[in-house]
């Protein structure tokens, strides 16, 4: 399917497999990664991709999957299959740990039945056979050793060993103390020699203790003797150890026989663990590259949206750089893309990104592109990348390219993706260009899909005049002289040879001589391409700006509609509430009048009684017509009741002795001017003084402006899209006006985003003494994207 054999490595697919392999926990999982190959069956690919996608969602949004112990079960099952062979203690312990992991995984997905349907297929109809685990746990303890009570015989043997060892130790301790008392022993304690407990005895005293000499020190000064009375006890312990070993072998053999009927099930468990490890590794890699599952298509086509090269993406993550996304479409009408543009402008990366992502999808891997991308199925992928000259095969660079072109022309069809880097290079351009054009014509006639990168002008002209072949170029900023790494289809691009040479400092005389040597026609074409590239960049920038404006307009429109709906809803609520209150007042008034008339009749129209009832009636009715008086200190009641303060009056500020002119009045607040300084004071915080002669015209103009400001001012400010300093400056202006005009609150629309602007604004507002509290808007009307600042 892939030609030549090293094409996958040239495209970077081998490196992708290495990165996935590093995510595996088991050797079996790594072996499965090594076997990854592009597939052609659509249903199979769909299943593989959905499994990786579901596992990625599980890792990101669900509880951790219990995969603590992923040990290979298949080799142990094959070992147990042979009659007469038994598994060791460590083998059974490995089986037990793996079984516990298998059972935990099955229970995990059973608890989430229907949530991950494609992952559930991995263990469909696979039972939890607890008899295996129970049988092993009856014999093997939590440390992986045979239990002391695994059988009655083993328990008896272990008890005998313990008793014999205790007796032997007691005897040798007695002999050792006696030898020490007599001065026969060397420095040191009891020691082990040849697996036997011995006494270190001085060489000159070794005949004084009956026993067997097992060893001597390097100097010959010390002999290590096992006393005669202990020798027989140690032999007894040795015999019991052999009996213990035989009994353990018998127990393990019996347990292996019990396990043998379950060997097919153990192999199924092994396959489950391997697949879970494999899919988990693919999902972890997808998270690293921000991979998504694209749409699959039956036809041979490619439509990538915001695609990025995965290896480049991982490499840039460490340095903090970003990868420019790629958008490209290859289909029936736009079969072959001829990419031109400057050197180091991203042509080869663009082509490799398309080829690598196609290989990844057909291998069941998620790709770093939007989920709206659409990928078809290709039967073959041919690639000519790099220099494949060979001394052994007597192939030059161009010969190697030609041999591939021959293979491509003979074997490619409409279900083939062809990738050719620097098409036609390696020989004289006068001959290489026409040959490349002829090969391209043949491939196009066969309906081949592909990407070709080139600098040849004849290929650009051929692409612009041939149906099925489309020019494309990598954008270049010819002002800053740097590539933008953005692919745009429709027009070819200039190589910017002279511009790049000039930027790196090549001698101007050399450049002028080179320009004289190229043909006038070629020079005009290249100049036209440069101008076209500049126009394309301007159009692209304009499109970006228009798109941003459209998004901002749509957002403002949505906010406006939401605000109108909110006002309309509140308007209805207030009117309904007022109507209900009015009805309640009328009902109460009617009752009050009726009760008053009844009382007057009952008192037989007594004048005093009638007068009192009239006063009560008037007082009750006045509750709904007059505002309650605000209690103020006695000393200040006189000022507020007897002296009215109007615009143009002068007042004195107690405590400072300053005199100020009243330039604005709003409810109980006064806007004062002390020279160029403006401040807001309550009526009861100032004392009126005699008017001063001031310029009436200026005051009248200012007062008129103030009145206009009050009439037009809305206590709402929108700072979305502003930088922090500009937003705070704008808020400060609105806040000052809201305080001066006596508004109870200020609405600040800042948007949600990452919450950074919201945090700065709230920290800033908390420094204002006039701000009493801060609240979010109702969640249905903007929530955390809007802050209400309530003013004192």
Automatic annotation (TrEMBL):
Smr domain location: 717-792
HAMAP family named among the record's database cross-references: MutS2 (MF_00092)
Lineage start: Bacteria, Pseudomonadati, Bacteroidota, Sphingobacteriia, Sphingobacteriales
Keywords per UniProt: ATP-binding, Coiled coil, DNA-binding, Endonuclease, Hydrolase, Nuclease, Nucleotide-binding, RNA-binding, rRNA-binding
Species of provenance: Parapedobacter defluvii
Function (record text): Endonuclease that is involved in the suppression of homologous recombination and thus may have a key role in the control of bacterial genetic diversity. Acts as a ribosome collision sensor, splitting the ribosome into its 2 subunits. Detects stalled/collided 70S ribosomes which it binds and splits by an ATP-hydrolysis driven conformational change. Acts upstream of the ribosome quality control system (RQC), a ribosome-associated complex that mediates the extraction of incompletely synthesized nascent chains from stalled ribosomes and their subsequent degradation. Probably generates substrates for RQC.
Gene: mutS2
NCBIfam families (UniProt xref): mutS2
Subunit comment: Homodimer. Binds to stalled ribosomes, contacting rRNA.
Entry keyword Methyltransferase: no
Catalytic class of the enzyme: hydrolase
Positions that bind ATP: 341-348
Gene3D superfamilies: 3.30.1370.110, P-loop containing nucleotide triphosphate hydrolases
SUPFAM superfamilies according to UniProt: DNA repair protein MutS, domain III, P-loop containing nucleoside triphosphate hydrolases, SMR domain-like
Source organism superkingdom: Bacteria
Coiled coil feature spans: 539-627
Identification of the protein by name: Endonuclease MutS2
Catalytic activity, EC: 3.1.-.-, 3.6.4.-
GO molecular function: endonuclease activity
Family under the similarity heading: Belongs to the DNA mismatch repair MutS family. MutS2 subfamily.
Entry keyword Acetylation: no
